[in-house]
Write a structure and sequence with these properties.
Layout lengths: L1 H56 L16 E4 L4 E4 L6 H13 L10 H5 L5 E2 L5 H10 L1 E6 L2 H14 L3 H15 L9 H6 L6 H9 L15 H5 L8 E4 L3 H11 L21 H5 L4 H17 L19
Parallel strand pairs: 2-4, 4-5
Antiparallel strand pairs: 1-2, 1-3
Helix pairs in contact: 6-8
């Protein structure tokens, strides 16, 4: 009998310890989730307050209505009441895949689209194509989000993708004129393939000359290097979520948490970032300091709106020996 009582005491003690550990685990998990939610909320509040403050300083206010012509980059998912303003070179291929996955509905599976295919997917609905009254209603009631990136890092990424890598359409539309006007090639090869075979390519400094040429002021910039502000108009509408390329994985998780889809949809991982803020000096050392300053002025509002540090070391000579 004594042995039985001793075994019973050990059993009760063991059950107590197990219960305590289980409760402690769930308590710690709950606390962790609460802290994560608080951190996410604080981060989003800070990003939105910065946008509001910057818009006020530029005397830009929320508009009652946006014209369809300014909504080319807005993608709609009616089933989830979601609007995504995509910005090229800010993980938009993966985020578009996520939108297609949502559009397909549960179970949320990988649509199996390449980056090239997703941009032309018939599953993507653009806000500009809806009647005006529907546009207004969707902008008012749907959850709106965008992802942004350090402006100069994005610019270099666009240059690498469109002019260093093989891209015949961009060579035809932009590359040949750049080589003709800024690259000392009066008669550039008709194709990028021929140009590369001849050792001819669009240099970064020629690309920047093209962007800053006053003669281009009346031409709408390509969306891959147009200002993020011009594409998504954060001063003219209130976004519900603002993600950053630099914290893409965490921000996508937070967005899915808000949408209550975190455990239901596959998160597409961003590709390894070939261009980072740390590599900027290597790219910009070929540019005169006054050109870098002028380029910053072009993208200054993006820096201020989204809280990116002014890269003053690029034009004050700290890491660059080239003078004006």
């Amino acid at each position: 009998m004594a042995i039985c009582r001793q075994l019973l005491r050990h059993l009760i003690y063991g059950l107590f310890v197990c219960s305590f550990l289980i409760l402690s685990y769930f308590y710690a998990t709950d606390i962790s989730l609460v802290l994560r939610a608080q951190t996410m909320h604080q981060r989003q509040e800070a990003r939105m307050q910065l946008i509001n403050k910057t818009c006020s300083s530029y005397n830009l206010t929320v508009l009652e209505e946006m014209s369809p012509g300014k909504l080319s980059n807005f993608i709609v998912d009616d089933a989830h009441g979601l609007i995504y303003c995509y910005i090229p070179k800010v993980g938009c291929s993966n985020l578009k895949k996520m939108m297609v996955t949502l559009k397909n509905g549960p179970p949320y599976r990988d649509p199996g689209l390449t980056n090239a295919q997703v941009h032309d997917s018939p599953k993507i609905s653009y806000l500009k194509n809806f009647p005006r009254h529907e546009i207004k209603a969707k902008l008012k009631h749907y959850t709106k989000f965008l992802f942004v990136r350090d402006p100069f890092v994005r610019l270099v990424s666009a240059y690498r993708n469109k002019f260093v890598e093989l891209n015949e359409p961009f060579y035809s539309k932009h590359g040949r004129p750049i080589l003709h006007f800024y690259g000392n090639h009066p008669y550039p090869p008709m194709s990028q393939t021929l140009a590369l075979a001849s050792g001819i390519s669009v240099s970064f400094d020629n690309f920047i000359q093209y962007l800053l040429d006053p003669r281009m002021a009346s031409v709408s910039p390509d969306e891959h290097w147009n200002q993020m502000n011009n594409l998504c108009h954060p001063c003219h509408m209130q976004y519900d979520f603002i993600g950053h390329q630099e914290t893409m994985d965490d921000d996508v998780q937070d967005l899915l948490e808000i949408l209550m889809l975190k455990d239901e949809i596959q998160v597409y991982q961003a590709f390894p970032k070939m261009t980072t803020s740390d590599s900027m000096a290597a790219w910009f050392k070929v540019l005169p300091l006054n050109v870098i300053r002028e380029l910053y002025q072009r993208y200054e509002i993006d820096y201020k709106l989204f809280g990116y540090r002014e890269p003053s070391e690029l034009w004050n000579g700290t890491n660059i020996s080239k003078t004006t």
